[in-house]
Design goal:
This protein is α+β, with helices and mostly antiparallel strands. The protein has 12 helices and 7 strands. The strands form 2 sheets. A 4-stranded antiparallel sheet has the order 2-3-7-6, with no helix packed on it. A 3-stranded mixed sheet has the order 1-4-5, covered by helices on one side.
Length: 405
């Protein structure tokens, strides 16, 4: 099937809405909540009500219902779809253009929602499709190696009992639910790792602390402890069966949804930085001419063109990964490619923008220095640059994780 690079007309109203939120809500309060970390952005309450309405209609961007809406419909062979994944990517891109930290604290936009969309059964989508879910994977003993999960979920009748500690949980103290990765049998290795939906306000769930961070300060980042936390067995996402032959593949499908979303965030921040940099350069008499060779232009203009080309490739890789997910094509390789390229690009773009804008860029007179700080996490969470390159290499060379480490 061929992808059409033109954005679907049915998303026009959605895009316009997200752009208005970015310009009129997020951008004006961006600096305020960067300086007031852990303060809840009360201005988001109106938008939260709006997204609540969208969630009820099955169109809440990253919401679980939106992520799988097109999969339940049969369609003729060869007919392509632009559905929930593409919509999530566009929403994330446009909102992050305003402020990625504020985007990450919006209800129904949590990475946990994309996780629910990736592996939940149809019955679970009915139950959890309207919750706001954070995602808890990382632990004090590991970062990018998701297979190293030590949190446990022990079956006890019709319940699971969760124990363990999770760190760097984005929106962990604000989301209504948390998607927790835990092992149902440590002796079976990574194949026994499952994801569970846990209400945040639930016996055995403790918000230990909130982290002080380099960037995305408008979004809280929590340490959460689970102590003898009992949840219904139905809250295990997907199948409870442990398939050692399938290995880690089931729960890892989550990343095929969430990595393009993070790539979209990076694309949004990169676009914001490029627009601001272009304005600064043009205000200082530096013309960017696409009809002249870079060598014949001001060095800053030539560098801008280079950065913009990387931005364009990041955008296209991200859109392809989302399109493939909507059309039920395996996109693990493309998801990692989009995350790796966009994560690397947004850091290059934002840091070079600060440099090219000189003292103006390094000061707080613009948001360039803030975007440079925000950009760093976009190359780290949901799998670091190094992890993405390792995954890509395995896919391209057809090597297993044991063969290529």
């Amino acid at each position: 099937m061929a992808i059409n690079l033109e954005l679907p007309k049915k998303f026009a109203a959605n895009i316009d809405q997200a752009r208005q939120a970015a310009h009129e809500v997020f951008r004006p309060i961006s600096r305020k909540y960067d300086l007031a970390e852990h303060t809840y952005p009360v201005e988001l309450d109106t938008l939260a009500a709006l997204y609540d309405g969208l969630a009820a209609a099955g169109a809440a961007g990253a919401g679980a219902a939106g992520g799988r809406g097109d999969e339940v419909k049969e369609r003729p062979e060869g007919v392509v779809v632009n559905g929930g994944n593409m919509q999530s990517i566009i929403n994330s891109m446009e909102a992050s253009y305003g402020d990625v930290g504020l985007m990450l604290t919006m209800p129904y936009q949590g990475l946990g929602n994309a996780a629910i969309a990736a592996v939940a059964t149809d019955e679970q989508l009915e139950s959890f499709g309207k919750v706001w879910a954070a995602m808890a994977i990382t632990e004090p003993s590991f970062g990018s190696d998701s297979a190293a999960v030590t949190a446990t979920a022990v079956r006890d009748g019709d319940e699971y009992v969760l124990n363990g500690e999770k760190i760097f949980v984005t929106a962990g103290s604000r989301a209504t639910h948390i998607v927790v990765w835990a092992s149902v049998d440590r002796s079976l290795g990574r194949a026994a790792i499952k994801s569970f939906v846990v209400p945040r306000e639930h016996p055995g769930v403790t918000i230990v602390r909130l982290e002080e961070k380099l960037g995305i300060r408008a979004s809280d980042t929590a340490v959460i402890r689970f102590e003898d936390c009992r949840i219904p067995a139905a809250n295990l996402l997907g199948s409870p069966e442990v398939d050692v032959k399938k290995g880690f593949g089931g729960v890892m499908q989550t990343f095929d949804n969430t990595r393009p979303m993070v790539a979209a965030m990076a694309v949004g921040v990169a676009r914001a930085s490029l627009e601001e940099l272009r304005k600064i350069l043009e205000d200082n008499g530096i013309e960017i001419d696409y009809d002249r060779p870079a060598i014949d232009q001001h060095a800053a203009a030539a560098e801008f063109i280079r950065l913009e080309s990387d931005f364009e490739s990041s955008y296209l890789l991200t859109m392809r990964a989302g399109w493939m997910a909507d059309n039920k094509e395996p996109n693990s390789l493309e998801a990692s490619m989009s995350k790796a390229k966009a994560g690397r690009t947004v850091n290059d773009v934002t840091n070079r923008a600060v440099e090219l804008a000189s003292t103006f860029g390094y000061s707080e007179r613009t948001l360039l220095e803030k975007w440079a700080r925000d950009a760093k996490i976009l190359d780290i969470f949901e799998g670091t640059q190094q992890i993405q390159q390792l995954i890509i290499s395995r896919r391209v060379l057809d090597k297993s994780s044991a063969e290529l480490k």
